[in-house]
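Appendix B. One record, verbatim.
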Amino acid sequence: MLGIEHFGLFLVATLALNLTPGPDMLYIASRASAQGTSAGLVSGLGIGVGCLVHALAAAFGLSALLLMSALAFSLVKWAGVLYLIWLGVQLVRAAWRESPGQALAPASLSRVFCQGVLVNLFNPKVALFFLAFLPQFARPDSPNFVWQMLLLGLFFSLCGTLVNAGVALLCGHFGSRLGNRPAWRRWQQSGAGVLIMAMGIGLALTERRG
C-alpha cells in the first residue's frame, strides 16, 4: 500500500497505543461524564482532527522544528498549559455560576469540538510522537513518502477516534445515570474542570528530549 512497510504491525501498535490511557482519553472521559455522550463523541472527533494536523506536520517536516528548537517546543507547550488551565477554570466557574437547583447550561457541540482540537494541537508531545512513530513504517527514500505518512496518520486517527468513541459512550452512560440531578452534575463538571487543570500542570512539567 504505497510502499508502507509492516502495515500489519503498524495496525497492532496503533491499537495498543490508542488503548493506552492518556491526556486525550482523560479529556474525553471528563467531557462525556460531565456533559453527556454527545459531548464526549464530539470531543473525540476534535481530538482526531488534531491528530490529523499533527500527521500533516510530521509529513511535511514541520514537527521537526519542535525537536530541534527548544524555543518552539516551549511556546507550544506553554500555550497548551495556559489553554488547559483556562479551560478547566471555565468549567468550574460555569458549574457554580447557576443557582443550586438550576440545571447547567451545556456548552455547544461546536465549541466542544474546537476545544478537543486545541487540546490535542497544543500538546507538543503528540507532535513529537507522530514524528518518531510514523516514519518507522514509511520509506523516506520513496517518492510517496508524504502520502505514506498521511495515510498512516489517517489510520492512526481513525483508530483513536473509534477507541475514544467507546470511552465517550461508556463514560456518558454512567454520567447520565449518576448525574440527572443538577447538584450532582455540578460536582461532575467541577471534577472535570479540576482534571483538565491537572492535565495542564502535568504538561507544564514535561521536558523536551532529544
